[in-house]
């Protein structure tokens, strides 16, 4: 299949392009955009170290986007166009797939199918319009188990033109890691047991790449919580003690606001859910957020802690507005 090489750049080509810009003053018909694609976001796939473990541990060597885990949040409004330059500073090829988004075929990040892999030292320019609002994420489609397992992922948030009324819009990226006793990522990515069971279970859980910390809230506050499960195999099932949680979107698709089945927001690998939390507890109170997906190993993920201050407003906000439907037509 013919690859889309028009978007592929090596370091040498980029440097050559920089030399050509020296002559731009004598060639007024050539703009900067003609020399190098414009981009709104830059993602650098690279090795770095970050603090995913508690502070009394050393930092952990990871593969990240632009030195962060999760990678930078790409946030834009529905209908806007984004241009993203991905630079590969790893020692192996990679791509970026925009999980759940409707994008042109050449932008989908599937190696040898929609594009050539981005080799070490090369760049790829992704350019697409955001058709659908919702919570999505991005990750590689080359050596996916290892590249994801070492930290290559991030979220892309497409805001509605008329979003629901909330006081905060929070993103939680849920992941588990297989960590050795020395705090490094275990290197057994080709473990036969994992391959035969379709995934790699970890032994340490993070939220947004860090140890879970209490969610501090104010009474009568309303929070939109965007949940994304980027774990390789783990299922998360979140239960919010003493809180009336409403699901408003699943995998980017709006749904009628409803309580989750069995009071558990269930997320398989790759899934997302947008929920609304009305914080109706008493100032100074504390409530658990439990992960109850596996009956034999339920655990307290973190707490909701109410500030010991007056409520944000005299009474809670009213009914939750239904999100507008996506413009995606049903197949005919």
The total count of helices amounts to 4
The separation of the N and C termini measures 28 Å
Round the mean pLDDT to the nearest integer and report it: 88
Which percent band covers the strand fraction? 35-45%
**Quaternary structure:** single chain
What is the percent of helical residues? under 10%
- pLDDT < 50 stretches: 1-35
Order of helices and strands: EHHEEEEEEEHEEHEEEEEEEEEE
Instruction: State the strand order across the main sheet.
Output: 11-10-13-18-15-16
How is the biggest beta sheet arranged?
6 strands, mixed
Structural class computed from helices and strand pairing: mainly beta
Shape: globular
Please report the total strand number as a whole number. Answer: 20
Q: Rg to the nearest angstrom? A: 22 Å
Q: Nutshell version of this structure?
A:
With 332 residues, the protein is mainly beta. It contains 4 helices and 20 strands.
Describe this entry's structure for a reader.
With 332 residues, the protein is mainly beta. The chain is built from four helices and 20 strands. A hairpin with a 7-residue loop joins β19 and β20. The longest helix is centred in the N-terminal third of the chain and has 10 residues, at 11-20.
Give short descriptive properties of this protein.
single chain; 332 residues; mainly beta; 6-stranded mixed beta sheet; 4 helices; globular; disordered N terminus
């Amino acid at each position: 299949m013919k690859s889309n090489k028009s978007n592929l750049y090596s370091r040498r080509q980029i440097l050559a392009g920089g030399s050509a810009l020296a002559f731009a003053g004598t060639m007024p018909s050539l703009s900067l955009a003609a020399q190098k694609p414009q981009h709104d976001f830059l993602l650098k796939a690279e090795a770095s170290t970050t603090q995913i473990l508690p502070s009394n541990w050393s930092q952990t060597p990871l593969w990240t986007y632009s030195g962060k885990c999760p990678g930078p949040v790409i946030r834009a409004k529905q209908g806007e166009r984004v241009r993203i330059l991905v630079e590969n500073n790893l020692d192996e090829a990679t791509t970026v797939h925009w999980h759940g988004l409707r994008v042109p075929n050449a932008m989908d990040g599937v190696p040898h199918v929609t594009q050539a892999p981005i080799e070490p030292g090369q760049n790829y320019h992704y350019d697409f319009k955001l058709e659908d609002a919702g919570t999505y994420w991005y990750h590689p489609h080359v050596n996916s188990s290892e590249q994801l397992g070492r930290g290559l992922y991030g979220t892309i948030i497409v805001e509605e033109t008329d979003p629901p009324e909330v006081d905060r819009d929070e993103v939680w990226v849920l992941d588990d890691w297989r960590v050795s006793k020395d705090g490094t990522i275990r290197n057994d990515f080709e473990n036969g047991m994992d391959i035969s069971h379709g995934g790699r279970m970890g032994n340490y859980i993070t939220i947004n790449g860090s140890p879970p910390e209490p969610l501090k809230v104010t009474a009568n506050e309303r929070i939109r919580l965007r949940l994304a499960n980027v774990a390789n195999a783990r299922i998360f099932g979140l239960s919010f003690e003493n809180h009336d949680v409403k699901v408003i979107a699943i995998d980017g698709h709006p749904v009628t606001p409803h309580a989750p089945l069995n009071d558990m927001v269930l997320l398989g690998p790759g899934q997302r859910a947008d929920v609304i939390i009305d914080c109706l507890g008493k100032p100074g109170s504390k409530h658990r957020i439990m992960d109850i997906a596996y009956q034999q190993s339920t655990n307290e993920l973190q707490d909701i802690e109410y500030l010991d201050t007056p409520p944000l407003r005299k009474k809670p906000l009213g009914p939750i507005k239904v999100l507008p439907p996506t413009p995606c037509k049903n197949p005919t």
